[in-house]
Amino acid sequence: MSTRTPHRPPATEPVTEPVGATVGGSVVGRLADELWAAVSVADENVAVEVVLGALERGVDPESVLLDVIARVQGKVGEEWAANRIGVAQEHAATAINERAVAALSRHPAARTTPTRGRITVACVDGEWHALPARLLAEVLTLRGWRVDYLGAQVPAPHLIAHLHRTDSDAVALSSSIATRLPTAHAAITACQAVGVPVLVGGAAFGPDGRYAALLDADAWAPDARTAADRLAAGPLPRPRGDHQQLDDLPHLADQEYTLITRNSASLVRGVFTALQDAFPAMRTYSEVQLERTAEDLAYIVEFLATALYLGDEDLFAGFIAWTAQILTARGVSASSLPPTLAVLARELKDFPRAIRILERGAEALTPVDHRTAESRS
Questions:
Q1: pLDDT digits (tens, 9 = 90+) for 6-24
Q2: Given strand 170-174, what is the order of strands in its sheet?
Q3: Phi-psi region of 83 (alpha: psi -120 to 50; beta: other; left: phi over 0)
Q4: Is 259 helix (H, G, I), strand (E, B) or coil?
């Protein structure tokens, strides 16, 4: 397995324009360059000065949020994926961008009086990437909505309790990582059960919103502007009260997702043990490398389970291909991936849908990966 664990899988992250692009004009392009220069060296003071200076020069606050800060955050993710910055640098840059958003929200140019209804904005349970949701909350506030921003990782029971205490016109749910989609589905269904429609967004739902439709969300938006436009266009349709999760995903009746999820820990242990024979290089791993290998295996099983939940083989294939690219960018051989998938397939020989998904994942790896793996076995 790999010797460095990817800390998140942006396989479904939307492709962003490069920093300094002409979208939004040369002014915001220069501002994005200036903000990137600041966050890339963790200079919070300069970053905030760039953002507040833009407001002082009359740049529209929504443009600063979406054409400058959001664009730079996309650059942060791209630089991490290419191994040009580390995890600590990425986290620092994200934290600075979050504080820049907070500074913008307190500036007189961003102060608005609510003239519209009430929207609850939250991340699904287990989702720690809160900046996209925060950006949406700020855009909606600028456009006159009363916004309840609940932040990262909101368990569904707490979200529903909030809805019972308030009179929200809609819930906007954000998720960046596809493995949170089963949890997102539960949250969508729970909100709809109490009569509140749900708009979803974030990379987890796919660049075309395919998973939003699959999970029967009431609306989907690819970005904050589109989401705000959709909410302004009129009320979301009221959900039907008798909706059940299994109605959306009848394939779950085969119990493959449930059984693999319930037994994921023992499955990871079994694959970890068998992989030492299937991939002999693993016998020379240090304790740290072995720990990270176990983490990687758990992550692969989690993505397999998510693909089973959604009934989407391409989701897993995309994740495996992305993982190989991430490892290669870090100088780590991806040759462990084919034998890992083969061992998983042996362990799950009685799970036909899982077998097909694993085969699709193996096909997503280049022939070079397979030959390298075979030469090292």
A1: 444 433 333 333 343 333 4
A2: 146-154, 118-124, 170-174, 198-201, 219-220
A3: left
A4: helix
